[in-house]
Recover the amino acids of this structure.
């Protein structure tokens, strides 16, 4: 065989060997053309992600948007203004229950694509029902006739409704006070404008530790998984370029949690500067904002279904919902998500 023939054969063999890789590359969207618009409810997590460097070198653009409260995030998602909206794991349960048209796997407009939380801890609960000491509330039944502050659409709202169910009460038997977002609800509680508050402990920590208030219930009492989640529209999840960018995004973010655990002083400094909070509050937020991504497996969905059924049976929501419709697990592998039992295994 001549040198020319050998060269030609070698080139042909190389082309055959490389053809699967070339075909795969041709099928992969060009991530440099992708842009993800991602919302969070306060500036801390975006600042921490930037500080961690986990997104450094990403081919796509990430644009952070600050939207306070799940209601604002839901509105922005429906309007197509963001790709990921930040809310709580029960947000879509409430959306389904309030939707004029029943959600199905085919028509569901929104799906949760990521969820995360810290370990269960008596010192660092993720979600609480707190009461003012001056309101003389000894048991959950004592909230009858009291001013109860909450904000619409997320885990705080679900905690509010679950508290009513545990008390055997309806909204007509209390004074509901609906705030635009969690900071406003917490400010109302701290100022004594409401007797009862459903939401995160961090914003009312000073009131609790000063003795002006106390914790009545936590997420462990109400059975709410109490995850922070990102939600996407069905339109985004049908866009191959967006999906490819999200796969890479979540793969990179899976490395954030170890960085968080290993850089406590740095994280606390970022929390203090971005949220303008005290050392005490920043130390608390460091604990409650750590954790890991949670897998959307049968265990998690069973717990989500259980709290949805509790709310329906207690007449806190009007329609029975199928929570499975609101979850999309396609990014769990990239997230290195772990099962709920491991995620919430007791801390300190």
């Amino acid at each position: 065989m001549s040198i020319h023939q050998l060269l030609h054969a070698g080139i042909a063999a190389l082309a055959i060997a490389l053809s699967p890789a070339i075909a795969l590359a041709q099928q992969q969207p060009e991530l440099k053309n992708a842009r993800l618009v991602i919302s969070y409810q306060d500036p801390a997590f975006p600042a921490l992600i930037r500080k961690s460097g986990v997104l450094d070198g990403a081919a796509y653009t990430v644009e952070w948007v600050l939207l306070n409260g799940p209601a604002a995030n839901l509105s922005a998602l429906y309007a197509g203004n963001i790709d990921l909206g930040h809310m709580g794991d029960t947000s879509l349960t409430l959306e389904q229950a309030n939707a004029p048209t029943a959600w199905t796997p085919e028509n569901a407009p929104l799906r949760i694509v990521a969820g995360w939380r810290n370990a269960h801890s008596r010192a660092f609960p993720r979600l609480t029902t707190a009461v003012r000491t001056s309101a003389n509330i000894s048991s959950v039944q004592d909230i009858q006739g009291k001013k109860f502050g909450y904000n619409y659409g997320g885990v705080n709202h679900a905690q509010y409704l679950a508290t009513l169910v545990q008390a055997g009460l309806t909204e007509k038997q209390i004074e509901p006070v609906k705030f635009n977002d969690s900071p406003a609800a917490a400010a109302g509680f701290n100022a004594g404008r409401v007797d009862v508050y459903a939401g995160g402990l961090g914003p009312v920590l000073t009131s609790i530790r000063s003795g002006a208030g106390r914790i009545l219930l936590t997420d462990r009492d109400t059975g709410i998984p109490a995850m922070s989640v990102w939600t996407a529209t069905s339109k985004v999840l049908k866009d191959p370029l967006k999906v490819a960018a999200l796969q890479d995004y979540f793969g990179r973010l899976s490395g954030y949690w170890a960085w968080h655990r290993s850089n406590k002083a740095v994280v606390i400094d970022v929390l203090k500067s971005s949220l303008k909070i005290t050392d005490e509050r920043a130390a608390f937020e460091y604990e409650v904002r750590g954790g890991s991504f949670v897998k959307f497996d049968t265990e998690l969905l069973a717990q989500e279904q259980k709290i949805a059924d509790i709310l329906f049976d207690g007449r806190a929501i009007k329609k029975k919902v199928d929570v499975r419709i609101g979850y999309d697990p396609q990014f769990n592998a990239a997230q290195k998500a772990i099962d709920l039992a491991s995620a919430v295994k007791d801390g300190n």
